Protein backbone atom coordinates (compact mmCIF):
# COMPACT_ATOMS: atom_id res chain seq x y z
CA UNK A 1 0.00 0.00 0.00
CA UNK A 2 2.97 2.31 0.62
CA UNK A 3 4.11 1.48 -2.92
CA UNK A 4 0.70 2.35 -4.36
CA UNK A 5 0.50 5.54 -2.29
CA UNK A 6 3.94 6.58 -3.58
CA UNK A 7 2.87 5.82 -7.17
CA UNK A 8 -0.30 7.85 -6.76
CA UNK A 9 1.60 10.77 -5.30
CA UNK A 10 4.28 10.54 -8.00
CA UNK A 11 6.94 10.07 -5.29
CA UNK A 12 10.09 7.96 -5.50
CA UNK A 13 9.99 4.91 -3.20
CA UNK A 14 13.38 5.67 -1.64
CA UNK A 15 15.46 8.68 -0.79
CA UNK A 16 19.22 8.60 -0.20
CA UNK A 17 20.40 10.64 2.76
CA UNK A 18 24.04 10.71 3.94
CA UNK A 19 24.76 7.61 1.88
CA UNK A 20 21.87 5.52 3.27
CA UNK A 21 18.65 4.62 1.48
CA UNK A 22 15.37 5.22 3.33
CA UNK A 23 11.79 4.33 2.35
CA UNK A 24 9.51 7.30 1.67
CA UNK A 25 5.89 7.81 2.72
CA UNK A 26 3.16 10.47 2.95
CA UNK A 27 5.34 12.57 5.32
CA UNK A 28 8.44 12.67 3.06
CA UNK A 29 9.29 16.28 2.18
CA UNK A 30 13.09 16.45 2.37
CA UNK A 31 14.30 18.22 -0.79
CA UNK A 32 17.46 17.72 -2.91
CA UNK A 33 18.80 21.11 -1.79
CA UNK A 34 18.50 20.11 1.84
CA UNK A 35 20.05 16.67 1.26
CA UNK A 36 23.05 18.41 -0.33
CA UNK A 37 23.65 20.49 2.84
CA UNK A 38 23.78 17.55 5.27
CA UNK A 39 27.46 16.56 4.82
CA UNK A 40 28.86 20.12 4.91
CA UNK A 41 29.10 20.78 8.69
CA UNK A 42 30.19 24.41 8.39
CA UNK A 43 30.71 24.61 12.16
CA UNK A 44 33.65 22.20 11.85
CA UNK A 45 35.30 23.72 8.72
CA UNK A 46 38.56 25.36 9.83
CA UNK A 47 38.56 29.17 9.44
CA UNK A 48 34.83 29.33 8.66
CA UNK A 49 33.20 32.10 10.77
CA UNK A 50 30.76 29.56 12.30
CA UNK A 51 33.65 27.34 13.32
CA UNK A 52 35.50 30.23 15.00
CA UNK A 53 32.34 31.23 16.84
CA UNK A 54 31.82 27.63 18.02
CA UNK A 55 35.40 27.52 19.32
CA UNK A 56 34.99 30.90 21.01
CA UNK A 57 31.92 29.64 22.88
CA UNK A 58 33.69 26.38 23.79
CA UNK A 59 36.69 28.30 25.15
CA UNK A 60 34.36 29.99 27.62
CA UNK A 61 33.29 26.60 29.03
CA UNK A 62 36.64 24.78 29.27
CA UNK A 63 35.49 22.15 31.77
CA UNK A 64 32.51 21.08 29.61
CA UNK A 65 32.43 18.19 27.12
CA UNK A 66 32.46 19.65 23.57
CA UNK A 67 30.39 17.64 21.09
CA UNK A 68 29.91 18.45 17.40
CA UNK A 69 29.43 15.29 15.36
CA UNK A 70 25.95 13.91 16.07
CA UNK A 71 23.87 12.91 13.03
CA UNK A 72 21.13 15.37 12.03
CA UNK A 73 18.72 12.45 11.52
CA UNK A 74 16.54 11.97 14.59
CA UNK A 75 13.16 10.48 15.33
CA UNK A 76 10.17 12.75 15.97
CA UNK A 77 10.19 11.04 19.38
CA UNK A 78 13.64 12.49 20.13
CA UNK A 79 12.95 15.90 18.62
CA UNK A 80 9.53 16.37 20.27
CA UNK A 81 8.08 13.66 22.55
CA UNK A 82 11.06 13.18 24.89
CA UNK A 83 10.95 16.96 25.41
CA UNK A 84 7.23 16.97 26.31
CA UNK A 85 6.01 18.75 23.17
CA UNK A 86 2.22 18.36 22.97
CA UNK A 87 0.88 16.01 20.27
CA UNK A 88 -0.64 18.93 18.34
CA UNK A 89 2.41 21.26 18.43
CA UNK A 90 2.64 23.11 15.05
CA UNK A 91 6.40 22.40 14.81
CA UNK A 92 5.55 18.76 14.08
CA UNK A 93 3.75 19.53 10.82
CA UNK A 94 5.24 18.81 7.39
CA UNK A 95 4.96 22.50 6.54
CA UNK A 96 7.40 23.38 9.36
CA UNK A 97 9.84 20.45 9.56
CA UNK A 98 11.72 18.21 7.14
CA UNK A 99 10.82 14.52 7.20
CA UNK A 100 12.67 11.61 5.55
CA UNK A 101 9.54 9.61 6.40
CA UNK A 102 7.09 9.49 9.30
CA UNK A 103 9.67 7.86 11.60
CA UNK A 104 12.74 9.94 10.74
CA UNK A 105 13.27 13.69 10.48
CA UNK A 106 15.97 16.36 10.48
CA UNK A 107 16.44 17.83 13.95
CA UNK A 108 14.80 21.26 14.23
CA UNK A 109 16.96 22.18 17.25
CA UNK A 110 19.96 20.85 19.17
CA UNK A 111 17.69 20.16 22.16
CA UNK A 112 16.75 16.97 20.26
CA UNK A 113 19.93 15.43 21.75
CA UNK A 114 19.47 16.45 25.39
CA UNK A 115 18.06 13.15 26.63
CA UNK A 116 20.65 11.12 24.70
CA UNK A 117 23.62 13.16 26.01
CA UNK A 118 22.41 13.24 29.63
CA UNK A 119 21.70 9.51 29.27
CA UNK A 120 25.38 8.93 28.42
CA UNK A 121 26.30 10.41 31.79
CA UNK A 122 27.46 13.86 30.62
CA UNK A 123 26.73 16.51 33.26
CA UNK A 124 28.37 19.61 31.72
CA UNK A 125 28.36 19.75 27.95
CA UNK A 126 28.11 21.83 24.78
CA UNK A 127 26.82 20.49 21.47
CA UNK A 128 27.08 22.41 18.20
CA UNK A 129 25.17 21.23 15.14
CA UNK A 130 23.27 22.10 11.98
CA UNK A 131 19.48 22.31 12.43
CA UNK A 132 16.72 22.36 9.81
CA UNK A 133 13.44 24.29 9.60
CA UNK A 134 11.10 24.99 6.70
CA UNK A 135 10.73 28.73 6.42
CA UNK A 136 10.41 31.75 4.15
CA UNK A 137 13.33 32.95 1.97
CA UNK A 138 15.07 36.25 2.72
CA UNK A 139 18.39 37.73 3.90
CA UNK A 140 18.06 36.44 7.47
CA UNK A 141 16.28 33.09 6.97
CA UNK A 142 17.82 29.94 5.56
CA UNK A 143 16.40 26.41 5.89
CA UNK A 144 19.61 25.26 7.60
CA UNK A 145 21.25 27.10 10.46
CA UNK A 146 23.45 26.22 13.43
CA UNK A 147 22.87 26.07 17.16
CA UNK A 148 24.99 25.47 20.21
CA UNK A 149 23.24 23.69 23.06
CA UNK A 150 24.74 23.97 26.52
CA UNK A 151 23.70 22.21 29.70
CA UNK A 152 24.74 21.60 33.26
CA UNK A 153 23.18 19.26 35.82
CA UNK A 154 24.17 18.61 39.44
CA UNK A 155 23.02 16.24 42.16
CA UNK A 156 19.78 17.35 43.79
CA UNK A 157 21.32 17.36 47.29
CA UNK A 158 23.34 19.67 49.51
CA UNK A 159 26.63 18.77 47.79
CA UNK A 160 25.16 19.71 44.38
CA UNK A 161 23.70 22.93 45.73
CA UNK A 162 27.00 23.86 47.38
CA UNK A 163 28.79 23.42 44.05
CA UNK A 164 26.28 25.80 42.42
CA UNK A 165 26.48 28.36 45.23
CA UNK A 166 30.28 28.51 45.04
CA UNK A 167 30.15 28.90 41.28
CA UNK A 168 27.55 31.68 41.64
CA UNK A 169 29.86 33.61 43.97
CA UNK A 170 32.79 33.28 41.58
CA UNK A 171 30.73 34.37 38.54
CA UNK A 172 29.04 37.26 40.38
CA UNK A 173 32.40 38.62 41.50
CA UNK A 174 33.69 38.47 37.93
CA UNK A 175 30.61 40.22 36.50
CA UNK A 176 30.71 42.92 39.17
CA UNK A 177 34.11 44.04 37.90
CA UNK A 178 32.86 44.16 34.29
CA UNK A 179 31.04 46.74 32.19
CA UNK A 180 27.72 45.03 31.72
CA UNK A 181 24.21 46.34 32.34
CA UNK A 182 21.64 43.61 32.88
CA UNK A 183 17.89 44.05 32.63
CA UNK A 184 16.74 41.08 34.70
CA UNK A 185 13.41 39.37 35.39
CA UNK A 186 12.61 37.46 38.59
CA UNK A 187 13.84 33.84 38.62
CA UNK A 188 10.24 32.74 39.26
CA UNK A 189 6.85 34.31 38.56
CA UNK A 190 3.24 33.10 38.26
CA UNK A 191 3.68 32.85 34.47
CA UNK A 192 7.09 31.23 34.81
CA UNK A 193 6.68 28.89 37.75
CA UNK A 194 8.82 26.46 39.70
CA UNK A 195 8.27 22.77 38.86
CA UNK A 196 6.21 20.64 41.24
CA UNK A 197 9.19 18.31 41.72
CA UNK A 198 11.55 21.14 42.76
CA UNK A 199 12.33 23.00 45.96
CA UNK A 200 11.95 26.72 44.96
CA UNK A 201 15.22 27.49 46.80
CA UNK A 202 17.07 25.02 44.56
CA UNK A 203 15.36 26.38 41.45
CA UNK A 204 16.45 29.93 42.39
CA UNK A 205 20.07 28.81 42.73
CA UNK A 206 20.00 26.95 39.40
CA UNK A 207 18.29 29.86 37.59
CA UNK A 208 20.86 32.23 39.07
CA UNK A 209 23.70 30.00 37.87
CA UNK A 210 22.12 29.90 34.39
CA UNK A 211 21.85 33.70 34.28
CA UNK A 212 25.36 34.33 35.59
CA UNK A 213 26.87 31.76 33.20
CA UNK A 214 25.13 33.28 30.17
CA UNK A 215 25.73 36.93 31.13
CA UNK A 216 29.37 36.03 31.38
CA UNK A 217 29.25 34.31 27.95
CA UNK A 218 27.65 37.44 26.43
CA UNK A 219 30.47 39.55 27.85
CA UNK A 220 32.99 37.10 26.38
CA UNK A 221 31.36 37.24 22.91
CA UNK A 222 30.36 40.90 22.66
CA UNK A 223 32.05 42.85 25.48
CA UNK A 224 35.41 43.51 23.86
CA UNK A 225 33.85 44.24 20.53
CA UNK A 226 31.47 46.97 21.60
CA UNK A 227 34.34 48.51 23.55
CA UNK A 228 32.12 48.35 26.65
CA UNK A 229 33.12 50.91 29.28
CA UNK A 230 31.64 52.05 32.58
CA UNK A 231 29.88 54.88 30.67
CA UNK A 232 28.88 52.65 27.78
CA UNK A 233 28.29 49.13 29.15
CA UNK A 234 27.19 46.05 27.21
CA UNK A 235 23.39 45.80 27.57
CA UNK A 236 21.81 42.38 28.11
CA UNK A 237 18.04 41.88 28.56
CA UNK A 238 16.33 38.83 30.09
CA UNK A 239 12.72 38.02 29.08
CA UNK A 240 10.33 35.37 30.35
CA UNK A 241 9.66 32.62 27.79
CA UNK A 242 8.10 29.17 27.50
CA UNK A 243 9.55 25.91 26.23
CA UNK A 244 7.86 22.53 26.80
CA UNK A 245 10.97 21.03 28.47
CA UNK A 246 12.03 23.91 30.76
CA UNK A 247 10.43 25.98 33.50
CA UNK A 248 11.16 28.66 34.47
CA UNK A 249 12.22 29.62 30.90
CA UNK A 250 13.90 32.71 29.46
CA UNK A 251 15.16 34.39 26.31
CA UNK A 252 18.23 36.60 26.17
CA UNK A 253 18.66 39.66 23.98
CA UNK A 254 21.79 41.77 23.51
CA UNK A 255 21.82 45.42 22.41
CA UNK A 256 24.30 45.58 19.57
CA UNK A 257 24.79 48.35 16.98
CA UNK A 258 21.49 50.00 17.82
CA UNK A 259 19.26 46.89 17.90
CA UNK A 260 18.06 44.26 20.37
CA UNK A 261 19.19 40.90 19.02
CA UNK A 262 17.56 37.65 20.16
CA UNK A 263 20.44 35.32 20.97
CA UNK A 264 19.10 32.29 22.81
CA UNK A 265 16.41 30.41 24.69
CA UNK A 266 17.04 28.64 28.00
CA UNK A 267 15.61 27.46 31.29
CA UNK A 268 15.59 25.07 34.23
CA UNK A 269 15.19 21.58 32.75
CA UNK A 270 11.77 20.01 33.25
CA UNK A 271 12.25 16.97 35.49
CA UNK A 272 10.46 14.48 33.17
CA UNK A 273 13.17 15.24 30.57
CA UNK A 274 15.85 14.16 33.06
CA UNK A 275 13.71 11.15 34.05
CA UNK A 276 13.72 10.14 30.35
CA UNK A 277 17.53 10.19 30.51
CA UNK A 278 17.62 8.13 33.72
CA UNK A 279 19.13 10.96 35.77
CA UNK A 280 16.14 11.68 38.02
CA UNK A 281 18.47 12.40 40.94
CA UNK A 282 19.87 15.49 39.21
CA UNK A 283 18.62 18.94 38.27
CA UNK A 284 19.99 21.73 36.13
CA UNK A 285 19.74 24.14 33.24
CA UNK A 286 20.01 24.15 29.44
CA UNK A 287 20.31 26.80 26.73
CA UNK A 288 20.27 26.85 22.91
CA UNK A 289 21.77 29.70 20.93
CA UNK A 290 21.75 30.52 17.20
CA UNK A 291 25.21 30.90 15.65
CA UNK A 292 24.34 32.70 12.38
CA UNK A 293 22.64 35.65 14.06
CA UNK A 294 25.63 36.21 16.32
CA UNK A 295 28.16 35.67 13.51
CA UNK A 296 26.28 38.09 11.22
CA UNK A 297 26.71 40.94 13.70
CA UNK A 298 30.21 40.05 14.94
CA UNK A 299 31.61 39.75 11.40
CA UNK A 300 29.20 42.24 9.73
CA UNK A 301 28.02 39.55 7.30
CA UNK A 302 24.95 41.06 5.56
CA UNK A 303 23.26 37.97 4.05
CA UNK A 304 22.78 34.53 5.62
CA UNK A 305 23.44 32.78 2.25
CA UNK A 306 27.06 33.94 2.42
CA UNK A 307 27.85 31.30 5.08
CA UNK A 308 27.30 28.69 2.33
CA UNK A 309 29.43 30.49 -0.25
CA UNK A 310 32.33 28.62 -1.86
CA UNK A 311 33.66 31.87 -3.31
CA UNK A 312 37.30 32.40 -2.28
CA UNK A 313 36.52 36.11 -1.95
CA UNK A 314 34.36 35.08 1.02
CA UNK A 315 36.29 32.17 2.54
CA UNK A 316 39.78 33.64 2.19
CA UNK A 317 38.81 36.63 4.34
CA UNK A 318 38.68 34.54 7.53
CA UNK A 319 41.20 32.84 9.81
CA UNK A 320 40.37 30.30 12.51
CA UNK A 321 40.14 31.98 15.90
CA UNK A 322 39.92 35.54 14.58
CA UNK A 323 36.85 37.74 14.33
CA UNK A 324 37.35 40.29 11.56
CA UNK A 325 34.98 42.60 9.70
CA UNK A 326 33.71 41.17 6.43
CA UNK A 327 34.65 43.32 3.43
CA UNK A 328 31.74 43.10 0.99
CA UNK A 329 32.64 42.49 -2.61
CA UNK A 330 30.49 43.94 -5.37
CA UNK A 331 26.82 43.10 -5.13
CA UNK A 332 25.42 42.00 -8.47
CA UNK A 333 22.17 43.41 -9.83
CA UNK A 334 18.89 41.84 -8.73
CA UNK A 335 16.53 40.32 -11.25
CA UNK A 336 12.84 40.26 -10.23
CA UNK A 337 10.39 37.81 -11.82
CA UNK A 338 6.70 37.50 -11.01
CA UNK A 339 4.92 34.14 -11.09
CA UNK A 340 1.10 34.38 -11.16
CA UNK A 341 -1.16 31.38 -11.21
CA UNK A 342 -4.58 29.93 -10.42
CA UNK A 343 -4.81 27.13 -7.88
CA UNK A 344 -7.15 24.23 -8.72
CA UNK A 345 -10.46 24.64 -6.91
CA UNK A 346 -10.26 23.91 -3.20
CA UNK A 347 -6.46 23.45 -3.27
CA UNK A 348 -4.04 25.45 -1.14
CA UNK A 349 -0.31 25.94 -1.50
CA UNK A 350 1.83 26.56 1.58
CA UNK A 351 4.45 29.29 1.12
CA UNK A 352 7.15 26.92 2.45
CA UNK A 353 6.30 24.42 -0.32
CA UNK A 354 6.65 27.17 -2.91
CA UNK A 355 9.99 28.29 -1.40
CA UNK A 356 11.46 24.75 -1.37
CA UNK A 357 10.50 24.33 -5.02
CA UNK A 358 12.25 27.58 -5.97
CA UNK A 359 15.29 26.69 -3.85
CA UNK A 360 15.61 23.28 -5.54
CA UNK A 361 15.72 24.91 -8.98
CA UNK A 362 17.62 28.14 -8.34
CA UNK A 363 19.79 27.19 -5.34
CA UNK A 364 21.46 30.14 -3.63
CA UNK A 365 20.78 32.36 -6.66
CA UNK A 366 17.38 33.05 -5.10
CA UNK A 367 17.73 35.89 -2.61
CA UNK A 368 14.15 36.59 -1.69
CA UNK A 369 10.62 35.24 -2.33
CA UNK A 370 7.62 37.41 -1.48
CA UNK A 371 3.93 36.80 -1.79
CA UNK A 372 2.97 39.89 -3.79
CA UNK A 373 -0.49 39.64 -2.29
CA UNK A 374 -1.19 43.35 -2.55
CA UNK A 375 -0.43 43.34 -6.22
CA UNK A 376 -2.54 40.34 -7.01
CA UNK A 377 -4.13 37.86 -4.63
CA UNK A 378 -7.83 37.38 -4.99
CA UNK A 379 -10.45 34.76 -5.35
CA UNK A 380 -12.32 34.66 -8.63
CA UNK A 381 -15.91 35.60 -7.69
CA UNK A 382 -17.60 33.13 -10.07
CA UNK A 383 -15.44 30.03 -10.07
CA UNK A 384 -14.01 30.31 -6.55
CA UNK A 385 -10.52 29.64 -7.85
CA UNK A 386 -7.73 31.33 -5.98
CA UNK A 387 -5.02 33.34 -7.65
CA UNK A 388 -1.57 33.91 -6.19
CA UNK A 389 1.36 35.99 -7.31
CA UNK A 390 4.88 35.50 -5.97
CA UNK A 391 7.74 37.87 -6.70
CA UNK A 392 11.11 36.09 -6.87
CA UNK A 393 14.35 38.03 -6.58
CA UNK A 394 17.19 36.23 -8.37
CA UNK A 395 20.67 37.56 -7.65
CA UNK A 396 24.07 35.93 -7.76
CA UNK A 397 26.15 36.48 -4.64
CA UNK A 398 29.17 34.67 -6.05
CA UNK A 399 31.74 35.14 -8.75
CA UNK A 400 29.67 36.62 -11.52
CA UNK A 401 26.55 38.50 -12.39
CA UNK A 402 23.35 36.70 -13.40
CA UNK A 403 22.15 37.57 -16.93
CA UNK A 404 18.49 38.27 -17.62
CA UNK A 405 18.46 35.19 -19.89
CA UNK A 406 19.68 32.97 -17.05
CA UNK A 407 17.08 34.38 -14.66
CA UNK A 408 14.40 33.80 -17.31
CA UNK A 409 15.52 30.24 -17.80
CA UNK A 410 15.42 29.55 -14.04
CA UNK A 411 12.00 31.14 -13.82
CA UNK A 412 10.71 29.03 -16.72
CA UNK A 413 11.82 25.90 -14.85
CA UNK A 414 10.08 27.16 -11.69
CA UNK A 415 6.86 27.67 -13.67
CA UNK A 416 6.90 24.24 -15.28
CA UNK A 417 7.75 22.49 -12.02
CA UNK A 418 4.92 24.37 -10.32
CA UNK A 419 2.53 23.15 -13.03
CA UNK A 420 3.66 19.52 -12.68
CA UNK A 421 3.73 19.38 -8.91
CA UNK A 422 0.69 21.44 -7.96
CA UNK A 423 -1.40 21.40 -11.16
CA UNK A 424 -1.69 25.17 -11.17
CA UNK A 425 -2.77 27.21 -14.18
CA UNK A 426 -0.31 29.97 -15.03
CA UNK A 427 -1.93 33.34 -15.67
C1 LIG B 1 15.07 26.64 20.45
O1 LIG B 1 15.44 26.17 19.38
C2 LIG B 1 15.28 25.93 21.74
N1 LIG B 1 15.76 24.58 21.45
C3 LIG B 1 16.26 26.69 22.65
C4 LIG B 1 16.34 26.13 24.05
C5 LIG B 1 17.33 25.21 24.39
C6 LIG B 1 15.42 26.49 25.04
C7 LIG B 1 17.41 24.67 25.69
C8 LIG B 1 15.46 25.97 26.31
C9 LIG B 1 16.48 25.07 26.65
P1 LIG B 1 14.35 28.91 19.32
O2 LIG B 1 13.52 28.34 18.25
O3 LIG B 1 13.90 30.20 19.92
O4 LIG B 1 14.52 27.90 20.57
O5 LIG B 1 15.81 29.09 18.74
C10 LIG B 1 16.92 29.39 19.56
C11 LIG B 1 17.81 30.40 18.87
O6 LIG B 1 18.15 29.95 17.55
C12 LIG B 1 17.15 31.76 18.66
O7 LIG B 1 17.29 32.58 19.77
C13 LIG B 1 17.93 32.30 17.47
O8 LIG B 1 19.18 32.83 17.88
C14 LIG B 1 18.21 31.06 16.66
N2 LIG B 1 17.24 30.91 15.56
C15 LIG B 1 15.95 30.48 15.65
N3 LIG B 1 15.36 30.47 14.44
C16 LIG B 1 16.30 30.90 13.55
C17 LIG B 1 16.34 31.11 12.12
N4 LIG B 1 15.28 30.85 11.35
N5 LIG B 1 17.47 31.57 11.56
C18 LIG B 1 18.56 31.82 12.32
N6 LIG B 1 18.60 31.64 13.66
C19 LIG B 1 17.50 31.19 14.28
MG1 LIG C 1 12.67 32.02 19.93
Automatic annotation (TrEMBL):
Entry-linked InterPro entries: aa-tRNA-synth_II, aa-tRNA-synth_II/BPL/LPL, Fdx_antiC-bd, Fdx_antiC-bd_sf, Phe-tRNA-synth_IIc_mito, Phenylalanyl-tRNA_Synthase
Presence of the UniProt keyword Nuclease in the record: no
Molecular-function GO term, any one: phenylalanine-tRNA ligase activity
Location of this chain's protein in the cell: Mitochondrion matrix
Chemical reaction(s) catalysed: tRNA(Phe) + L-phenylalanine + ATP = L-phenylalanyl-tRNA(Phe) + AMP + diphosphate + H(+)
Major place of residence: mitochondrion
Aminoacyl-transfer RNA synthetases class-II family profile domain segment(s): 51-328
Stored SMART domains: FDX-ACB
Limits of the FDX-ACB domain: 330-427
Entry keyword set: Aminoacyl-tRNA synthetase, ATP-binding, Ligase, Mitochondrion, Nucleotide-binding, Protein biosynthesis, Transit peptide
The enzyme's E.C. designation: 6.1.1.20
Gene Ontology cellular-component terms listed: mitochondrial matrix
Enzyme class: ligase
GO biological process, one term: phenylalanyl-tRNA aminoacylation
Function: Is responsible for the charging of tRNA(Phe) with phenylalanine in mitochondrial translation.
Family: Belongs to the class-II aminoacyl-tRNA synthetase family.
Name of the protein in question: Phenylalanine--tRNA ligase, mitochondrial
Naturally occurring in which organism (per UniProt): Suillus placidus
